[in-house]
Amino acid sequence: MSIQTMALVGTGVMGMGIAQIAAQAGVNVLLFDARDGAAHTGKEKLKQTLDKLQAKGKLTEDDVKATLERLVVLDKLEQIKDADLVVEAIIENLEIKQTLFKQIEAVISPEAILVSNTSSLSVTALATACQHQGRVAGFHFFNPVPLMKIVEVIAGLVTDEHVIEELLDFAKRIGHLGVRTKDTPGFIVNHTGRAYSTEGLKILGEGVTTVSEIDRILRDGAGFRMGPLELFDLTALDVSHPVMESIYNQFYQEPRYRPHPLTRQMLTAGRVGRKVGHGFYQYVDGKKIDEAPLQSVPNITIFDKVWVATDLEQDADILKQYLNAQGIELDSAEDPANDSLCIVATYGEDATTTALRLGLNPEHVVAIDMITDFNRHRTLMPSLATSRHYKDQAHAIFAKDGTGVSVIAESVGFVAQRTLAMVINLACDIAQQQIATASDIDQAVKLGLGYPFGPLSWGDHLGAERILLILERMSAITLDPRYRPSPWLQRRAHLNLSLLHTA
Ligand SMILES: NC(=O)c1ccc[n+]([C@@H]2O[C@H](COP(=O)([O-])OP(=O)(O)OC[C@H]3O[C@@H](n4cnc5c(N)ncnc54)[C@H](O)[C@@H]3O)[C@@H](O)[C@H]2O)c1
Asked: In what residue span(s) does the 3-hydroxyacyl-CoA dehydrogenase C-terminal domain sit (predicted)?
């Protein structure tokens, strides 16, 4: 309970969010902004928010009154002198933040803690502006602060341990989960986020399928709340493209974070997303107007026999049960008959590679992605040589019970497999680099990115061996080091241990 008074410098979107949760938790908050009247306006807007919460019955009149009394607007920076903790949430610019840090240090006590809400700058670099560098840390909240109950507590190279501990305690006091993070580009959450965004772009760039279909597969099939391309439209490319470039370059062009030229071009053209009415989709009044409907299902009622091959036993059971239920005759011979449709549930390959590996006639082969929830959405991948006859039959068969089906062009690792494998593998690699503990990575990403599971729990749920198989095959076929499996994943998959397991 050592922190009694917090000063908040920079009363914009993030600053006022942090001020709100601290004041609601009983902390006295001093508000300062360099722009005349900005702190007053910030407090006034916050009053309106609190009034709305009161109207909804979420706060009492006394809560609102007490919270507002704890928020004190200052005219001069020097008036923050009695703060135990100073939170900086000004413009994202190293030199401007460093200048401010010097000014702050000149007025606060030597024991006070000084933190930045930076999302992309090095905390170690920020601290070099200060006399007492050990007191400087990162305190990275997410927007909107009151709803995103997670904060990364970032230790610079010379941050004192007691500072990190006090911040973790303080985070808890104000109702957030604090996760200890090393000072590395993107910290935990924005670092992990590279996998989903860049793989979505790579899939689009390879011509695997359309914008709508990529989003649909990852949303409906894989369980993400939003597809990667609609998510780009929401965050806007003027924000997200520079972050992609910055993290990639800060890690010295590590291929796992490789951005795509398409978003640079869209940014140049001003097609930055929803806020301008045009990004990957077009928007009118904030609503998408050109999302393509599900691909239409071929009208077929007579089917050939279906021969099934799967990498995993569990997939064979699901497929055979489904085909039986739909009245499709199975070809149960060891090798397919000359006129059977061959359905292959493969991992980490394209349909051509699987057909050749299994010695099948590629004209008869359609691959199916079994990593997605079979009852929610299905992805089919014919080989380049698959005939129209078998492609259409497969589409009709797997749409027969009304479940959505996406038919995609050849892609090593379909859409969902390669994306999930990238997300899980990157989280594994962050754990391997000891940027944070496995359990903190898992919780931070779930809360910070709104994934249905933490990425390591997700890997356990889908099976670490399966994820490893996808990555090993993708690496072998594409020769792209982007897909190399992290040692963290390899060891745990081989030893049949949870991805959250630590020595
Ligand atoms: N917006 C987000 O989603 C988000 C999320 C996490 C972290 N961040 C980080 O939080 C910080 C603030 O972002 P924001 O979106 O709230 O910005 P914002 O533009 O809404 O607010 C910044 C405020 O800082 C004030 N300011 C600028 N220079 C100042 C100075 N020298 N001294 C005092 N006040 C000054 C501005 O007048 C403005 O009111 C940035 O470092 C940003 O990277 C933002």
From this structure: 186-283, 413-494
245 lines ligand 1 (CB under 6 A): no
Residue 298 in domain: no
Residue 38 Cα: closest atom of ligand 1 = 39
Q: Is 7 in the pocket of ligand 1 (CB under 6 A)?
A: no
Residue 43 sits in which domain range? 5-182
**Residue of the CA atom closest to atom 18 of ligand 1:** 12
Q: Is 174 in the pocket of ligand 1 (CB under 6 A)?
A: no
Within a domain: residue 196? yes
The rounded distance, in Å, linking the Cα atoms of 331 and 184 is 54
Judgement on whether residues 318 and 249 belong to the same structural domain of the protein? no
Q: What are the beta bridge partners of residue 278?
A: 273, 282
Give the burial class of 359: count Cβ atoms within 10 A of its Cβ; 0-12 exposed, 13-18 middle, 19 or more buried.
Answer: exposed
Q: Which one of 147, 163, 182 terminates a domain?
A: 182
Best of 16, 33, 74, 141 to mutate for ligand 1, by most ligand atoms within 8 A of CB?
33
Place of tokens 């009034």: 51
> Does the beta carbon of 90 lie inside 6 Å of ligand 1?
yes
From 405, 363, 369, select the one nearest 384 (Cα to Cα). Answer: 363
- The answer to whether the CB of 394 falls within 8 A of the CB of 326 is no
Residue 247, CB-side half-sphere exposure with 13 Å CA sphere? 27
Residue nearest ligand 1's atom 7 by CA: 119
Residue closest to 366 by CA, chosen among 406, 333, 334, 329 = 406
Per-residue pLDDT of the chain (503 residues; tens, 9 = 90+): 589 999 999 999 999 999 999 999 999 999 999 999 999 999 999 999 999 999 999 999 999 999 999 999 999 999 999 999 999 999 999 999 999 999 999 999 999 999 999 999 999 999 999 999 999 999 999 999 999 999 999 999 999 999 999 999 999 999 999 999 999 999 999 999 999 999 999 999 999 999 999 999 999 999 999 999 999 999 999 999 999 999 999 999 999 999 999 999 999 999 999 999 999 999 999 999 999 999 999 999 999 999 999 999 999 999 999 999 999 999 999 999 999 999 999 999 999 999 999 999 999 999 999 999 999 999 999 999 999 999 999 999 999 999 999 999 999 999 999 999 999 999 999 999 999 999 999 999 999 999 999 999 999 999 999 999 999 999 999 999 999 999 999 999 999 999 999 98
Among 182, 205, 224, the domain-final residue is: 182
Catalytic residues: 119, 140, 152, 190
Cβ(10) to ligand 1 under 6 A?
A: yes
